[in-house]
TrEMBL record:
CDD domains according to UniProt: Trp-synth_B (cd06446)
Entry's Gene Ontology molecular function annotations: tryptophan synthase activity
Enzyme superclass (EC): lyase
SUPFAM superfamilies, sorted: Tryptophan synthase beta subunit-like PLP-dependent enzymes
Protein name according to UniProt: Tryptophan synthase
EC number(s) recorded for this UniProt protein: 4.2.1.20
Domain of life: Eukaryota
Signal peptide positions (record): none
Cofactor: pyridoxal 5'-phosphate
Catalytic activity: (1S,2R)-1-C-(indol-3-yl)glycerol 3-phosphate + L-serine = D-glyceraldehyde 3-phosphate + L-tryptophan + H2O
GO cellular component, as recorded: cytoplasm
Pathway entry: Amino-acid biosynthesis; L-tryptophan biosynthesis; L-tryptophan from chorismate: step 5/5
Domain Tryptophan synthase beta chain-like PALP residues, every copy: 136-461
Species this protein is from: Coemansia erecta
Amino acid sequence: MLRPHDFKLCDRFGTPVPEGEEFWLQIYADYTANIEKDYDLEATSFEDKYANTDCIKDFDIISGGRGHPEMLTHEVIDGITYLKMCNRYMRPSENSINYIPEAFYDCMAELERVYSECRNDDMFWAEFRSFYPFIGRPTPLHAADRLTEAWGGARVYLKREDLCHTGSHKLNNALGQLLVAKRLGRSRIIAETGTGQHGVATAAICAKLGLQCVIYMGSRDMQRQKLNVQRIQMLGAQVVPVTSGSCALKDAVSEAMRDFVGNMETTYYLVGSAVGSHPLPTMVRDFQRVIGCETKEQMLALTGKLPDAVVACVGRGSSAIGMFHPFIADADVRLVGARAAGASIVSNEQPATAAAALGTPGVLHGARTLLLQDARGQILEPDSVASGMNYPGIGPEHAWLHSTGRAEYYSVTDLQALEGFHMLARLEGIIPALETAHAVFQAKRLAQELGTDKQIVICISSCGDKDVDRVAQLAH
């Protein structure tokens, strides 16, 4: 257990901040008396209690003997100082350490301030919901009778995010962030994309709102996802090919960040998933949690009870955190994520993702989370049949859910994902994205484990039109 005297407090420039044991203990007492936790999970230590505090201003804290920096944040309310501290796995995404260049601090602080205002503004959410007819919300939830029969286990239901306009859940986040961008006064929008689905969603909303749009996409992914590249261009957006690194999603993110650094005053970087530094993972989660909220309501209306488990694919993790988050406090509902493990059907070499479903703690694109890296901390290149799974890390809130044991994450190989793809197509008449197919296969495992008296929901995050050629090529 961490105690107050274990720490040296300083600001992000390294300047010492006055402290003392009485000061810390008073803050701790103020916290326990006044701060309400975001999650109904029992804090088990001094560190855990600080980690749940809701704060604004950032400081660095260096702990004796732990060997890596942690973040302490504080807010003064009515003369009382409230603190929080992150643990190494990043508790809820509000607690993400901002591992970002100094040039980013002001714009990220502005984004945090404006989003905090939006988050507490009923008019903002009313405007968000006014686009539901455009998006196609609420999306349907229905039983998958033939899958249930074929698998011989739990009753299976499908949450159909593939029926959203543009073909995936990505529109939820794109809409929310662009409404924030409008409040920030930004007229130029940039985004990264792997499968092209986030690019299509961003381009569609930019066209709807009359905003300039630039999409960064790895050249390797552009070859795989030609249909979505054409859709993005038809919607009036510019597609910039990324030829550095592995020419995939990670590199598209890096190039988008470089663009953003040079154009911060006019440009908004619309991150496609629940990754990066605070408040980005929080924003993406908040805009995607409509998936889980609708699932709750629909399952109660259809079956009279909550599901025993919800299953989603986890690349970076936006659809999964959107499905999981409303169920976190429902301890009887298992949260199950399917991660890419690659496969030898694509290459004779065993891909990096086959080594571990989640990886080890490290820093990538502004946040400390779990990621694929070697013993020297060098990022490993994932190699999945699904472009959207080719990212070496996961969102920090998924890392936290894993560290607490609240969510489970399992590896699915390319071959198994293709099996899931064909099962859903041939038994239910639905062609899923290859990303979603990972969740379908994991749901098969889970359904057979749970038995016939249970029920599970699979998040069908995206349609598979973009992957038809890829699957046909692999079949030969």
